[in-house]
Amino acid sequence: MQKVALEMHLSETAFLVPRSDGPTSYDLRWFTPTAEVDLCGHATLASSKVLWDVHGADPGATLRFHTNSGVLTAIRDPAGVISLDFPAAIAQPVPDPAAYAEPLLRAFGLGSADEILWVGRNRIGGPGGGDLIVEVTPDAFGRLAKYPTSLSEISRPGSVLECRVLSLTCAGCPPAVPLPSAAEGDDLPDAAAYDFSSRGFAPCVGIAEDPVCGSAHCALGPLWADRLGKSTLLARVASPRGGDVRVGVSGDRVALGGHAVITMIGKLLHTKG
């Protein structure tokens, strides 16, 4: 599976195996080009779409995925929005935030330490013992380079930034963040509709920048729900590709919602020898 994921060269490749305990129950594993990960949102969204639209799963059924992070479920509403039920991954403030300032300035070209508002880490697992969440000012977020050039600060063993995913986040959606391009008839949100924005970097597991990191929102969702006093949020992912995530927070669970589109169907051939 790891070799296949390396050949696919996408941020994550999902592998599904039907289980014997029900027609909509599957074992699910995710691999980046260099490592297996314990949680992945957008590859689960894609898996659900394929099961419903290609493999004939009951469109009204709840899909159940058995993973290294427990049992995850997926449902789809009449409008085609797929909602995934994931465990919350609450981030706690790091004990010495000042130690993160210089590495963050080097990695992302921030203007000063004053632009770093909060640094936290959760226990989702992986390099560094958990994901890292860094809140910056909206102005600083809007000035981030399209392709940061110093991500080695994150992947360097022993660095305080070492982690599975480093999420940079800010309140709202700064003017510099590109919004979705509206096709004819599309009803898309404007910048004021977004509660927070983020970008996710994961060089430790072979991903310079994740186009849309669903699992990172298991931490970002609870963080911003608490900050804003809301249980339902709309998030903008400001990667070069871009994307939207609908987030619902309820206790120790996070619902992640979005659309999926099938663009290619192929056949993988295996030759012995």
TrEMBL record:
Active-site feature positions: 12
Gene Ontology molecular function, alphabetical: isomerase activity
Short name of any one Pfam family annotated for the protein: PhzC-PhzF
Annotated GO CC locations: cytoplasm
UniProt superkingdom: Eukaryota
UniProt keyword annotations, A-Z: Isomerase
Homology family: Belongs to the PhzF family.
Protein name: Phenazine biosynthesis protein family
Organism of provenance: Chrysochromulina tobinii
